[in-house]
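Researcher: Predict the fold of Cytokinin riboside 5'-monophosphate phosphoribohydrolase.
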Amino acid sequence: MKRICVFAGSNLGTHPDYRQSAVRLGEEIVKNGLELVYGGSKVGLMGEVANKVLEHGGRVIGVMPTGLFRGELVHTDLSELIEVKDMHERKAVMGKLADAYIALPGGLGTFEELFEAASWSQLGIHQKPIGVLNIADYYTPLIGMIEHAVNAGFVKDVHKQLLIAASDAGTLIQKLKQYRPPTLGNKWNQLSESDSKV
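Model: Structure tokens for Cytokinin riboside 5'-monophosphate phosphoribohydrolase follow.
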């Protein structure tokens, strides 16, 4: 594992632990000899992680669509800034560069990025570890929603293993390093194993 793609809010949130844990994640990324790939902003939790990695001499690659955001939001001190045409390309480039994913607290964009990574893992498009930094129980309702989806028959029980949760950045990175992809089998209840491979 060389690079971690971090999805995070472009705001700091209301709980002080959100910012503190973002800073801690930046420290742990450098401590573990890893590089950061993220959305390229200098604000919010995104900016806090990037600033801490840079402060400790780590490498940070930002990926941002050209002209989508105001210029003052773009982090100008990154190791590398990759400009892309749109949000779809942004996610594709970040995914290509990264060996693992971590989601910090964030809003709709963070949820969308996290679920795309999880969905693609479920479909076998990639086998990269996906972590959620569950700061102050931020992701506890989401984890509960996935459990509800399992009970309702829309998600296989084994697919819960695709998301790795921890409340501490160092612990989460170690879990990502130790991750072994589960054997997912057939995703579709109405198809046999042989049908799903056709």
